[in-house]
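Lab notebook page, bench 4
Experiment: in silico fold of construct C2
Operator: M.H.
Input chain length: 189 residues
Purpose: comparison with the prior construct
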Amino acid sequence: MKQKQLILASTSKYRQELLSRLAYTFTATPPLMDEEKEKDPALAPKALAEKLARLKAESLRHNDAIVIGGDQLVAFEGRILGKAHTIENAIAQLQSMQGKTHELITAICVVAGGQVIPYTDITRMHMKKLSREQIEHYVQLDMPLDCAGSYKIEKHGIKLFDKIESQDFTAIQGLPLIELGKILENLGL
């Protein structure tokens, strides 16, 4: 029986590095969908992350492949915090969250033939109380402009937090490897 091709529907270097830890051969391919057009402001944060993960995976579906789609967002005080893109926005995001708890929602969806297997990890992140100077220093250190919530937990961002409640630390970085490994094993990889 021919081994199915494994495709990561993402160009994220973070997700690629994470998936490589599972020691599978895979291809990273940009999803064939416009993520911005699919962002429905009426959806709750968890539902939106799950929808985007599913659409990314389904956009590359074909019979000889197992496709992994993923999405991650920060839910804070009833709103979604996306990627900052600028230093000023990153500082503002971190200032608004300092001393408070937010949720990091990481959704994946694995599509294999007719099967659609979703999984969502919700991690509660409590940020320390920080001065503006500490925040500015951190942003200059990691330049987390391409990360939801404006921090890179896998780098120096860990020092911003005093408590993290998670089932799977790798979910914080963008791909919950514990559950994903189980799903892929159940699919015969």
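Observations: The domain at 5-186 is CATH 3.90.950.10 (Maf protein). The first helix runs from residue 13 to 20.
Next step: discuss at group meeting.
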